[in-house]
Design a protein that fits this description.
about 15% strand, alpha/beta, TIM Barrel, about 45% helix, globular, eight-stranded parallel beta barrel, 10 helices
Length: about 230
């Protein structure tokens, strides 16, 4: 995945479900092409295939379960099946889908075994350190209290970002740190990059915006300048 990157998590918002998911992904694709920046999207499971068919962006799952192989696992999100649907990576341990450390470790291993990228979320610098030792591809530092707040961690708690970058570098220098929580404008992204991260994980700042195209273009410009 080309860095720096913007990963847009569609969550389960109505603005990013079904036909809306495809339209939002196409908008992300258009901005990525126009500005020559790296943007990936994480739609809901049922929208992965139609989104993948509609765009050239990299598509992520929002979660996988610690299930190593396809089989009799009703209701589970199985990495092997999701890769067949078109994903290149997955979020793991998002604050809205927290996992035990043993399951995080297993999911990172499953992601490696099926050849997809793992983006693990962490709420604190201490948690980034623990997860870094499990060797995911990326860790996104996202203080829970700032998610969806419209107040970015890069501005409200910059020390959380710098501490996370330093801890991850010390524990496993091969892991790339992203910044999430409250990202709403280009200045938030510029600050996140200045603090040492290599991209952002965003959701409501794009999905719930009255003009997501304008927001994405501002994000893209900040990413290029960063």
């Amino acid at each position: 995945m080309r860095l720096p990157v913007i990963i847009v998590n569609f969550k389960a918002y109505g603005e990013a479900t079904g036909g809306n998911a495809v339209r939002l992904a196409q908008l992300c694709d258009a901005v990525a092409r126009e500005h020559d920046v790296s943007i990936a999207v994480a739609p809901q499971y049922h929208d992965i295939a139609p989104v993948k068919d509609a765009v050239s962006l990299q598509v992520f799952a929002q979660h996988i379960d610690p299930v190593a192989k396809a089989g009799a696992f009703t209701g589970h999100a199985v990495a092997e099946n999701l890769k067949e649907a078109g994903i290149v990576g997955t979020l793991i341990n998002h604050s809205e889908k927290k996992m035990a450390e043993a399951d995080i470790k297993k999911c990172i291993g499953i992601a490696k075994s099926v050849g997809i990228v793992s983006v693990c979320c962490a709420a604190t610098p201490e948690e980034t350190g623990s997860i870094a030792e499990l060797a995911p591809d990326f860790i996104a530092i996202e203080p829970t209290e700032l998610i969806g707040s419209g107040v970015s961690v890069s501005k409200a708690k910059p020390e959380v970002v710098t501490q996370s970058v330093d801890i991850v570098s010390a524990r496993n220098s091969k892991v790339t740190v992203l910044c999430g929580a409250g990202i709403t404008n280009g200045a938030d992204i510029s600050e996140a990059l200045r603090l040492g991260t290599r991209g952002v994980l965003v959701a409501s700042g794009v999905v719930k915006s009255p003009d997501p195209g304008k927001v994405l273009a501002e994000f893209a410009n900040a990413l290029k300048l960063g």
